[in-house]
Amino acid sequence: MILSSGAKRPKIHSSAYVAPNAIVAGDVTIGAESAVLHGAIITSEGAPITIGAHSVIMENAVIKASGGSALQFPCAIGDRCIVGPHAYVVGAAVGNGCFVAGGAQVFNGATLEDGGGVAHGAVIRAGERVTSGSGGQARHLGDIFNLEAAEDVPARAAETYAKFLRKTHAQDSTVEEHRNVKPGAPLGSARGKRSGDEPPPTQATEVDKVVDVMMLELEEMEQRRQAAIKRQKGG
């Protein structure tokens, strides 16, 4: 979902991918060939957010910027970065080729130098600085993406992953809504758009026919009964 905030609206490069249930709101710029995955939230609240080219914001990550009349905390994610699932980055400067692992938190005024890494679940406090070099994380990403070990492994992994995601999700399309079936309902009763309580059209037609036949039989029986009563009175 792409939302404007006052006069500010997101600027998303035409080659970037944004999942339909991700939220991008306000003064946000997303660079070329980046990917924002399902459930991610990127929201500008008084200060701008910039995300560079070939970067990946994974599922349910939160990227925020905030600012008022006294303080401003813009947020910048550089080129070829990966921000992992459920990570929280607010008002921070993340350099090029950085890797922020899932569940990590990076707070206002923090800085990650180019090539820097934040471990899974780690907390980078306000104003803290993380120097370049990802160590074990680089080796880990190299194994995942089948890349040779080198200092720029996180950057190359981000570029490779962003390309893969854009190619994969280019084939996405909306499908028919799934309907749940009540416990005990016959299998197949929720096919199409019918719920488990609704009979299929052919079954409904057959039921209507049965009801009509029963009504005719009851009317004939009542007529015969009335005729018999008249005969008895006449006799």
Describe, in plain words, how this protein is organized in 3D.
The chain is built from three helices and 21 strands. With 235 residues, it is an alpha/beta fold. The protein folds into two domains: 2-169, UDP N-Acetylglucosamine Acyltransferase, domain 1, CATH 2.160.10.10; 199-235. Strands 1, 4, 7, 10, 11, 14, 17 and 20 form an eight-stranded mixed beta sheet that branches. A seven-stranded parallel beta sheet has the order 2-5-8-12-15-18-21, with no helix packed on it. A hairpin with a 4-residue loop joins β10 and β11 (72-73). α1 (136-145) packs parallel to α2. The model is unreliable at 192-196 (pLDDT under 50).
In short:
This protein is of the alpha/beta class and 235 residues long.
Gyration radius (Cα, Å) is: 31 Å
Q: What is the residue-averaged pLDDT?
A: 84
Would you count the extended β strands for me? 21
Which percent range describes the beta-strand content? 15-25%
| CATH superfamily annotation of the largest domain | Hexapeptide repeat proteins
Order of helices and strands: EEEEEEEEEEEEEEEEEEEEEHHH
CATH topology of the largest domain: UDP N-Acetylglucosamine Acyltransferase, domain 1
Please work out how many helical segments DSSP would assign: 3
Give the low-confidence spans: 192-196
Structural class: alpha/beta
